[in-house]
Amino acid sequence: MTILHLALAADWDAAREAGEYRISTLGRTLEEEGFIHACADHDQLHAVARRYYRDVTDPLVLLTIDPTGLDVRLEIPAGAQEAFPHLYGPLPLTAVVSATPYTRP
């Protein structure tokens, strides 16, 4: 099983320099949000991209994450109809299975 996270390429580059990823979602850090937003599958990810990233012109990266050993909880956010994985704590680079440019469908 893997989970997915959409990141600005610049944020991912900074994380590789720092040794861990600490961005929760567009414009918000782990410290501000309390967890890192993720998606359970590509359908959720594409819906998130359409809803929250449609006006973003910066390059995006799709992070595929192995959640083994991480504090990941499936939770239903306020106003949502489905559960999303939330990562409580920073994302270690070693948990990222792949980081590929994200092309909108």
Automatic annotation (TrEMBL):
InterPro entries according to UniProt: DUF952
Gene3D superfamilies, per the entry: Protein of unknown function DUF952 (3.20.170.20)
One Pfam family it belongs to: DUF952
Name of the protein this chain belongs to: DUF952 domain-containing protein
